[in-house]
Amino acid sequence: MKNFNFYLPTRVSFGWGRVNEIGKIVARNGKRCLLVTVKPFPALEPAFEKVKRLCNEAGVEIFHFDGVIPNPTTECINEGSKMAAENEINIVLGVGGGSSMDTAKAIAVGATHEGDIWDYRLGEKRVQSKKILPIIAVPTTGGTGSEITNMAVLKHPDEKFKSALADWALMPRVSIIDPELTMTVPPHITASTGWDAFCHSFESYLNKNASEFIDLYTLDSLKKVIKYLPIAVKDGTNREAREALAYAAMLGGLSITTIGTTLPHGIGMAIGGHVPNIMHGESLAIMYPEVNRFTWKYAISKYATIGRLFNPDLENETDEVAAEKACDEMDSFLKEIGMWMDLEEKHVPKNLFEAIAQDSIKLRNFTLHPKVANFDEIYKLLEKSYKFKD
Prior knowledge:
Blueprint: E1 11-14, H1 22-29, E2 32-36, H2 45-57, E3 61-65, H3 74-86, E4 91-96, H4 98-110, E5 135-139, E6 151-156, E7 161-166, E8 174-177, H5 187-206, H6 212-234, H7 239-258, H8 263-274, H9 280-295, H10 300-310, H11 319-336, H12 353-360, H13 375-384
């Protein structure tokens, strides 16, 4: 067996109705709490109000920062950090999707560190772990896994680049994963975040540093997404599907914290840096068809395993045939969940390809892919992904 490391400092409370425990959980960790969310809207406003009420009943004073935006920017995070510092916040509570939880994590750094939050991305300036405010995470989507990762993704609007803060103290002290909170998520967001969960597990499985140990988590997560994501997209009230996807997302987050993502995430992050209106899951869905065909010959055994998860009939085929067919199976899955799209459809102009390709190799994700791509190869992948929707 390969050597591996495993560390999980987050306490997980998983299951239906677990959000009802939030008051006592927050109260154990702090009494002046910054609640970090998007602007209230009908699908989630009842959940936000419930969280506030339960925290108040437990003796916690709530200060609500509702300035979270998709692809969180340094401006948004600095604003929340200022609010936290001015109100002497001693615990940060992120409730929502990946953007809300990542913003909460970044605020936990920004409120206690000098200067702009961008200065602390990926070790540019040292994060002082002991100064980071404690974090509680409550996901409302089944996908990003931020509730159990040691990173927070952020974007610099002027540089048009997405990067991340990384520190073990960014692991939430407690994650409350209650599938009930995902029941009102619309179909497309369900599909996009669910596909992100798939990609986390799949890329951790492909990663050069993958181990037999983490494969247990990635493969279980992939099986659940393959089975249940189409169900949840068609019927968001299906409790079995929502529960399975919440669990799969958690496993995906655990996997990328332990192993990490590869080439598709590097390109997806770069696309999101330059095109603010594109969801992270959408950027991944766009790139996967061509990235798969670029990759499968360099990871035949693993692609064959994934192909057979999608289509058990491939058990009767050789690994090489099953691996190549896995590309078609993933295409079909994307079409089934309504995520079959290309760069043209999402209004990504060709004149951005050079900048996107350059940014794709600024993060180390691409170096852990089974076949390490260079700038020219990434540029070509973007060209092939510009228009293929039928």
